[in-house]
Design goal:
about 35% helix; Immunoglobulin-like; single chain; nine-stranded mixed sheet; alpha+beta; extended; about 270 residues
Length: about 270
Amino acid sequence: MSTPESTTARSMGLFTAALAGVLALSSCGMLPVGDDASEDAETAQTAEAAETAEDTEETNDDAGGTSEDDDTDNDATEDESTPGDAPGGEPVDTTRDPDEASQTLTYPFAEGEGEMTVGAYPLQVDGDFMLLTLVFVPDYDDSEEVLTFNAMHGHSDGAGSGLKWFAPILADRENLKAYHVLNYGRGRADRWISSMVNQTLEDGEPYFLFAYYAAPQDDVEAMDVTMEALNIPVLESVEIDYGNGGTSEDNTGSEAEDEDTEDTDDDAEEGED
């Protein structure tokens, strides 16, 4: 039978033996101790983070290219300019030159001393629409008074009097047809034409009028511009631009080529049958 003293001695012996074993393993490098354990943990975390970063970069490359590609796209976007803008992004003045009008005529003022030159640019056809652009340039002494468009053409300027607006008429003499401003006669034609009759016109300054019409129904290359409300001569044979500087003949030629192509394709299909 063991006594308490013998039990205590035996326990102390076992503890001493266990401690000696731990110290032996540590001295052999089999167990991490102190700073060595921390360094090993940090090394493992660094390696794992590097692998994660590589995987993320590969995923981004597969999805949308590298950062260099993004820089290239950004440069391309910056180089693109909006129509009507200068390379630096500043608006460009697109006002037409009066000297570029295809047809012009000069007539005296209805009242007072002075004369007016009116010019017509080629009629522009775009789909179902046709645009007329006129430019008026007065020549008179405006040092004492600047006149209105109405006054230059013999119309008073008071409220309820004079012209509210005027609509030129396009005449197709070849096919005996007249083209009026859209919605003409329905009380809404002024929505399709700019108004300038009550505007004061300074000497030598160009003033523009724009009006929309239906596109020509026939193959015609030019039309006359009549302005009966102003009691002035006719602007004859104003050229029609059907797009890209072309004429009706160009469009007709394109349609004929398309028809020839369709006929050729039909013949080829019949030959295959």
